[in-house]
Design goal:
The structure holds 3 protein chains of 3 kinds.
Chain A: E1 6-10, E2 18-23, H1 29-38, H2 42-54, E3 61-67, H3 70-86, E4 89-95, H4 97-109, E5 117-121, H5 124-130, H6 153-158, E6 169-174, E7 176-181, H7 182-187, H8 199-209, H9 230-240, H10 257-273, H11 283-291, E8 297-301, H12 305-308, E9 320-324, E10 338-343, H13 351-361, H14 364-374, H15 385-389, H16 391-396, H17 399-408, H18 433-449, H19 454-471
Chain B: H1 4-35, H2 54-60, H3 65-94, H4 101-109, H5 116-127, H6 134-141, H7 149-152, H8 154-179, H9 183-191, H10 196-223, H11 228-233, H12 245-255, H13 259-289
Helix pairs in contact in B: 1-13, 2-13, 3-8, 3-10, 3-12, 5-8, 8-10, 9-10, 10-13, 12-13
Chain C: H1 7-34, H2 39-42, H3 46-51, H4 58-66, H5 69-100, H6 106-116, H7 125-135, H8 141-166, H9 169-177, H10 182-211, H11 215-218, H12 227-232, H13 242-273
Helix pairs in contact in C: 1-13, 4-13, 5-8, 5-10, 6-8, 8-10, 9-10, 10-13
Classes of the chains: A alpha+beta, B mainly alpha, C mainly alpha.
Chain lengths: 476, 290, 277
C-alpha cells in the first residue's frame, strides 16, 4: 500500500473538519462525505479529530464477506464508526447464506485471497481451522480490554479445534426453541407448556390453533432444502425420535425406523397445519411469515427472537412467547447449536487490521452500541456474559435469559439417544456432511412436496450417504 | 477471386480470434480433464491422488444423474417449443396493422433486457409465492386453493419463467424476419384464393425458416446451461425435480466441493453439448448456405 | 403496405396485441410500482397496492444505504462495454476475413467457434478460478472483461459474419478497382455498410454481458462486483422485503432497459439487415 493517501484531519474550533491531503488524495470523496455528516456537531468534530490523529498513517481497505441476516446488517450499519476511528475502510460483500457459503469455501480452499474477513459458522470453524485455512485468534486472550473469557465457553469451544486453538469470534449464538402466539393459544383455550413436551403433544397443540380461514397456520417449519435450512430443523427432530446419522462404524442410519417415524411426522404435520409452499420456506421466509402474524407456532433459532420481539419489524412482538423445542423418544439433541462468527482467512494480507475489526465487532462496547442505537431488544444474543447480565438488556428483553439457558442446555458432544462417533447436533462435524446433508435435505423436501414418498426419500438418502462415505473412505 | 496475398492477410485477421478461443477452450478443458481423474475435494486437502475413472463412475451412478439428463432435455425442449411457437404468433400479431405498434413492441421485448436473477426473484416472490404472490391472491380471491408453484409444478414453473425471458428474443428475430416478407407475393396468393392456413404454411413459414433456426441455435446455446433461475427459485428441488446437468455439476463441485467428480461431470456435459452442437451445426450450416 | 385497413380492424388488433404486450410487460411494471411503496403496502392485495396506498422513495434510500449502487453500476458498465469493445475489436477482422476471403474450412472454423459457447461454465469454474488466482485477476474488472469477451466472442463473430456476407462483393471489388487498399476498403466501404449490423451486435452483447450472472458472481468479491452481485444480497428475505427487492431490481435493470428501449430500432434494423433476413 505505497500509494495510500495520508490525511490529517484538523478539528480546531471554527474550522470544522477540514481535510488536508498531505499526499495523493485521489480517493478522498467517500471519506469526505462521511466527514461532512459529522461536522454538523462540534462534539463530533472533536471526537473525529482525536481518533483520526491517533489512527495509523496508512489506511487499509479490507473486504468482509457476510450473510444478509439482520444482525449482520446492523453491523454493516454501525461499521462506519470503526472506519472513522481507524481510518480504514471496509468493502462489504453481502450475500445470501447458501451463496456466501459456496463463495467463501471456494475462495478459502483454493487460497484465492479475495476476503480479509468472512462470516462462518460453528460447522466450518473447527474444520477449516484444522486445515490451516484460518488465522488463529489465540492472542485475543491477551487483550484485557477485549476480555475473551467474557464470551461463553461453550461458544468459544464450538469455534476452536481439538487442540483449543480459537479460529473465530462469535457475533451471536443460538439454539432452537418454539415460538408461539400467546394470544392465539389463549383464544383457543390451549395451555402453553412449561415443561418440554413431546412432538406428539406438539402436533395436538398445533391442530387446535390451526386456523387457515383467518390466515393463521398452525405451524411454520423450514422446508427449503439445505443442510443449514430444513435439515437444521429436521436433524434435532430426528434426534428426538431416537434417530442418528451414523452408527459407531460410520454406517449411515437414514433408512432406520426412527428416521422414518420422524420424517413421516414432519410431512404430516406440515401438510396438515403448515402454510402452502412450505418447500420454499427457510429461516428468513418463516421469520417473515411469523412476524406478519401468519403462524401460530414455529420451532427455530433463538436468535430470531430479537427480530420477532422488536415492534419495529414485527406485528406480533407483544404476543409472542417461547417454550422449549419438543422431545420424543429422547430429549438429547432436541435443540440445535450454532454460532455465526467472524474469522480471518490465512491468506489475508491485512491480518492486523482485520483482527482490529474483529475485536471491535465482538467487543462489549459493540453490543452496548447496538443496544443504544437499535434498542436493547435487538442486541445479538448468546455471546457475552456481561451483556447477558446487563440490566438494560434484561429490562428490554426478559426473554434473553430464556435464550441463554436454552443455549447452555445444549450438549453437542452428546447429541443422540444411541452413541455416535461424531459431535454436532444438527450437523455432523465432518467435511463430507455438507454434501450428504444437502442431498438428504433435497429428498425430504421432495417428500414434503409430495413428489416422492417418505420411504423413497429416505432410501435415496441412505444410498447417497453410503456412497459418499464409501467414496471418502469411512466405510468399505 | 481471392489472391494469395489476401489469403495470408485473411489468415492473419482470423488468427487472434482463433488463438484466443482455442486458449479459452483448451486450457480450462485440459485442466478439467486432468482434475476429473484425481481425487480432488476442496474441503479435504489430502493430496490429490490419481484415481482413474472413479469420478466418472460416481458421477454417472449418482442417483440424480438420470433425472438431470431428462430435466435438461425437458427444459431445453419445452422452452424452445414455447418460445418459437409463441415467437411466431407474436411476430404475426405485431405485423398486423394497429395503433401504437412501437409502444406495444417495446412492451413485448422488454423482458429480454431483465437479468435472469432478477426475473427469477420477481416471479418467485411477487407472483408465484402462494401466500403473498399475485397468482396466489388471485386464486384465493376466486375461491381456489392457491397453487404451490415450486412445490407442485417446479419444472413447469421454471420453464415458464425462462420462456418469459426468451420469448421476446424469439419475437424480435422473427418479427424482423417478417419485415422482409414479400407482401406482393402474399397478396397475390390471397387473390388466388389461397386460404390463410395455406398462406401461412407455404409462404410465411418457409420464409421464417432461417430465422427460426437462428432462434433455436442461439437459445439452445444459452438454455443448455440454465443456472441462475434454478439456483434462485428451487435449488434444484424438490428432490431432483429441477436439477439439470449444469446444476448437478454445480452441486458436485461447489456444494459438495468434489472438484474431481464435478470435473468428470463437466467433461460429460461438454461431450453431450458437442453432440447437440453437431446436430445444430448441421441444421444451421445448411441454412446458412441458403 | 398498399392495403387500406379500416380503423375498426386496427382498433381490434391494437386491443388484442396490446393486451398481450401488456401481460408480457406487467411483471416489470409491477416491480416498478412496488419499488415506490413501503414494505407494509407492498405485500397487500394488488388492488389495494394500486389504489389505496401512498408513494415513497424510502426503499431506494434503504437499498443505497446498504450497498453502494454507483460502484456496482460503474463496474457493470465497464465490464459490459469493455468486453463488447474488445470483442468487436478482435471479431471484426476475423468476420471480415471469413466473409470475403472464404477458404475451404471457413465454415467449419465458424461452427467450431460457436461450439465453444456450449461449454458449461460450471464445468470449468475451478480451473478458471485457479488460473485467475495465479494471474492475480480475481476480483478485477480486467479479469471479467476478459472472461465475458471470450464468452461472447463466438456470437459476435458469427453475427458480424452473417452481416458481412450480406454485403455484395461487387462493391468491394469496384472499390478495389478504383485503387482502394485493404485499409481504405475496410474503413470507407465496408464499415459504413456494416454499421447497422455492428450496432445491433454491440447492443446484443452489452445486454448479454450486463445480465451475465455466473462468472460475475464467482470471480468477484468487492472491488469488481457488478449489479448481479448487488441483487444477490436481496435474494432471501429479511422480514418484509418486496419493496426493497423491487427497488434493487429496478436499479439493476433500469440502465439496460432504457438503453434497450432507445436503441431497439437499431437492434431491429441490424437484425433485419443480417442474420435473419
Amino acid at each position: 500500500m505505497t500509494a495510500a493517501p495520508e490525511r490529517v484531519v484538523l478539528g480546531f474550533a471554527g474550522m470544522p473538519g477540514a481535510v488536508i491531503c498531505v499526499r495523493g488524495c485521489l480517493f478522498a470523496p467517500r471519506e469526505e462525505r462521511k466527514l461532512s455528516k459529522l461536522t454538523k456537531s462540534m462534539a463530533g468534530v472533536a471526537l473525529l479529530a482525536s481518533t483520526a490523529l491517533a489512527a495509523p498513517a496508512f489506511a487499509e481497505e479490507i473486504t468482509v464477506a457476510t450473510v444478509n441476516n439482520a444482525d449482520m446488517i446492523v453491523m454493516q450499519k454501525l461499521a462506519p464508526e470503526w472506519e472513522e476511528a481507524t481510518g480504514n475502510t471496509i468493502n462489504w460483500v453481502v450475500l445470501e447464506e447458501n451463496v456466501l457459503r459456496q463463495r467463501t469455501t471456494q475462495d478459502i480452499s483454493t487460497k484465492g485471497g479475495s476476503f480479509d474477513i468472512i462470516f462462518i459458522g460453528a460447522y466450518e470453524a473447527p474444520i477449516w481451522g484444522a486445515n490451516g485455512w484460518l488465522t488463529p485468534l489465540n492472542d485475543f486472550g491477551d487483550d484485557a480490554d477485549y476480555d475473551l473469557n467474557d464470551i461463553f465457553e461453550l461458544v468459544r469451544n464450538g469455534l476452536s479445534d481439538k487442540d483449543g486453538n480459537l479460529y473465530a469470534v462469535p457475533l451471536y449464538s443460538e439454539t432452537s426453541f418454539t415460538f408461539y402466539r400467546a394470544d392465539l393459544f389463549e383464544a383457543a383455550g390451549v395451555e402453553a407448556p412449561t415443561e418440554q413436551i413431546t412432538y406428539t403433544d406438539f402436533a395436538d397443540l398445533v391442530s387446535k390453533v390451526h386456523d387457515p380461514d383467518n390466515g393463521v397456520f398452525g405451524t411454520c417449519q423450514r422446508g427449503k432444502a439445505g443442510w443449514g435450512e430444513n435439515m437444521a430443523f429436521v436433524g434435532p427432530m430426528v434426534n428426538a425420535f431416537g434417530g442418528r446419522w451414523f452408527d459407531m462404524d460410520w454406517q449411515p442410519q437414514i433408512d432406520s425406523p426412527e428416521w422414518n417415524a420422524a420424517i413421516t411426522y414432519y410431512v404430516d404435520l406440515m401438510n396438515n397445519y403448515g402454510p402452502p409452499g412450505a418447500t420454499a420456506n427457510g429461516h428468513n421466509e418463516n421469520r417473515a411469515l411469523f412476524a406478519d402474524g401468519k403462524c401460530a407456532t414455529w420451532v427455530d433459532a433463538t436468535s430470531a427472537a430479537n427480530y420477532i420481539k422488536n415492534p419495529a419489524n414485527s406485528k406480533v412482538a407483544e404476543v409472542t412467547d417461547f417454550f422449549q423445542a419438543p422431545k420424543q423418544e429422547t430429549s438429547n439433541g432436541t435443540g440445535w447449536f450454532w454460532s455465526w462468527a467472524l474469522a480471518i482467512p490465512a491468506t489475508s494480507q491485512k491480518i492486523d487490521v482485520a483482527k482490529d475489526f474483529l475485536k471491535w465487532g465482538t467487543s462489549k462496547e459493540y453490543f452496548q452500541k447496538v443496544g443504544e442505537t437499535e434498542g436493547w431488544v435487538a442486541v445479538p444474543s448468546g455471546t457475552r456474559q456481561s451483556i447477558h447480565e446487563d440490566p438494560r438488556l434484561l429490562e428490554a428483553a426478559p426473554f434473553a435469559e430464556t435464550i441463554k439457558n436454552a443455549i447452555f442446555s445444549v450438549d453437542p458432544a452428546n447429541p443422540t439417544r444411541d452413541p455416535v462417533p461424531y459431535t454436532g447436533v444438527q450437523f455432523v462435524a465432518i467435511p463430507e456432511f455438507q454434501g450428504i446433508g444437502n442431498y438428504v435435505g433435497q429428498q425430504i423436501s421432495a417428500a414434503l412436496a409430495g413428489q416422492s414418498t417418505v420411504e423413497e426419500a429416505l432410501a435415496n438418502s441412505q444410498q447417497f450417504a453410503v456412497r459418499e462415505m464409501t467414496k471418502a473412505g469411512y466405510i468399505k | 477471386m481471392a489472391t494469395k496475398a489476401s489469403r495470408a492477410a485473411a489468415r492473419m485477421m482470423i488468427s487472434p480470434s482463433v488463438i484466443l478461443l482455442l486458449g479459452w477452450m483448451i486450457i480450462p478443458l485440459s485442466l478439467t480433464i486432468y482434475f476429473s481423474f484425481l481425487r480432488y475435494n476442496l474441503i479435504t486437502p489430502t493430496g490429490n491422488p490419481f484415481v482413474g475413472w472413479e469420478n466418472y463412475y460416481w458421477f454417472v451412478t449418482d442417483p440424480s444423474f438420470k433425472a438431470a439428463m431428462i430435466n435438461t432435455l425437458l427444459l431445453v425442449g419445452g422452452i424452445l417449443l414455447i418460445t418459437t411457437i409463441g415467437g411466431v404468433i407474436f411476430a404475426l400479431l405485431l405485423d398486423l396493422p394497429m395503433f401504437g405498434q412501437g409502444v406495444i413492441r417495446i412492451m413485448v421485448i422488454a423482458p429480454f433486457f431483465v437479468m435472469p436473477t432478477v426475473s427469477a426473484l420477481v416471479w418467485k416472490n411477487m407472483f408465484m409465492n402462494p401466500v403473498n404472490g399475485i397468482f396466489g391472491r388471485l386464486a384465493t380471491g376466486m375461491g381456489f386453493e392457491p397453487v404451490d408453484f415450486f412445490g407442485q409444478i417446479p419444472l413447469l414453473s421454471i420453464i415458464f419463467i425462462v420462456s418469459w425471458q426468451w420469448l421476446p428474443f424469439a419475437t424480435l428475430i422473427l418479427f424482423t424476419a417478417m419485415q422482409s416478407l414479400d407482401q406482393e407475393q402474399l397478396e397475390a396468393a390471397e387473390m388466388d384464393g389461397a386460404s390463410w392456413r395455406n398462406r401461412f404454411w407455404f409462404i410465411i413459414l418457409p420464409h421464417l425458416a432461417r430465422a427460426i433456426t437462428v432462434v433455436i441455435l442461439i437459445e439452445t446455446i444459452f438454455l443448455l446451461s440454465i443456472f441462475a433461475e434454478i439456483l434462485v427459485t428451487t435449488n434444484g428441488g424438490p428432490g431432483t425435480a429441477t436439477t439439470n446437468l449444469t446444476y448437478l455439476i454445480y452441486v458436485s463441485s461447489l456444494l459438495q466441493f468434489d472438484v474431481g467428480m464435478g470435473s468428470a461431470g463437466g467433461v460429460i456435459a461438454i461431450i453431450l453439448a458437442n453432440i447437440v452442437a453437431i446436430f445444430l451445426m448441421r441444421m444451421i450450416g445448411k441454412n446458412l448456405d441458403a | 403496405m398498399a392495403r387500406a385497413v379500416s380503423n375498426g380492424i386496427k382498433l381490434r388488433n391494437t386491443a388484442i396485441v396490446g393486451t398481450l404486450g401488456f401481460l408480457m410487460f406487467f411483471p416489470i411494471l409491477w416491480i416498478l410500482i412496488l419499488s415506490f411503496k413501503t414494505e407494509e403496502d407492498a405485500i397487500r392485495a394488488p388492488l389495494e397496492v394500486l389504489f389505496s396506498s401512498g408513494w415513497t422513495l424510502e426503499s431506494f434510500t434503504t437499498v443505497q444505504e446498504r450497498s453502494d449502487y454507483f460502484k456496482h453500476f460503474t463496474n457493470s458498465v465497464v465490464i459490459a462495454v469493455g468486453s463488447t469493445f474488445f470483442g468487436i475489436l478482435i471479431a471484426v477482422p476475423a468476420a471480415w476475413a471469413m466473409a470475403f476471403v472464404p477458404a475451404k474450412h471457413t465454415k467449419n472454423v465458424l461452427m467450431w467457434m460457436l461450439s465453444t459457447k456450449m461449454l458449461p461454465p460450471v464445468g470449468v469454474l475451478v480451473p478458471i478460478y485457479l488460473i485467475f488466482r495465479d494471474l492475480g485477476l480475481l476480483d478485477t474488472r480486467i479479469g471479467l472483461v476478459i472472461v465475458l469477451m471470450l464468452m461472447n466472442l463466438p456470437i459476435i463473430i458469427w453475427m458480424l459474419y452473417t452481416y458481412f456476407t450480406e454485403i455484395p462483393g461487387e462493391i468491394l471489388e469496384a472499390a478495389r478497382m478504383d485503387g482502394a487498399n485493404l485499409r481504405e476498403e475496410v474503413l470507407y466501404v465496408l464499415t459504413p455498410m456494416a454499421i447497422p449490423g455492428m450496432a445491433s451486435t454491440v447492443l446484443l452483447n452489452i445486454i448479454l454481458a450486463w445480465n451475465e450472472a455466473f462468472w460475475t458472481l464467482n470471480l468477484t468479491a468487492a472491488n469488481a462486483a457488478p449489479l448481479t452481485q448487488f441483487i444477490a444480497s436481496y435474494s432471501s428475505p429479511e422480514g418484509l422485503f418486496y419493496a426493497k427487492l423491487s427497488a434493487a431490481s429496478i436499479m439493476a435493470i433500469a440502465p439496460i432497459l432504457i438503453m434497450g428501449w432507445f436503441s431497439q430500432k437499431q437492434l431491429v434494423r441490424g437484425l433485419t439487415f443480417g442474420a435473419v433476413k
